[in-house]
Amino acid sequence: MAACIFCRIIKGEIPCMKLFESDKTFAFLDIGPLSKGHALVIPKYHGAKLADIPDDQLTEILPTLKKLVNATGAVDYNILQNNGTIAHQQVHHVHFHMIPKPNESEGLGISWPASTGDMEKLKALCEDIKSKM
Hints:
The chain is of the alpha+beta class.
């Protein structure tokens, strides 16, 4: 997809601060970092959402993220991957953020609006999801 900014970065049409590249995976520094070392890891295969990417194109993603964690020396960090506009995805090419969290003010800030689940409804949901996997 020629219009995709990440596909254009992979092709070298748009410069980036490349950290890693293989046949399947590409990693580079985020140009709008939330903290020092904030990087993106993307599959070279274009797909908007995680479910759009073939499993064999995802095999290097977590090992690459782990290498980035070790290379940056991050002790506390977030791995973030959003799917869809209402889930805060801005570039519609699957990408994973590795965001170091060196202190309370730098890195990703999130709130977690948790609720107490109805155990019977959760059990039914669990069985429904398991039956479709």
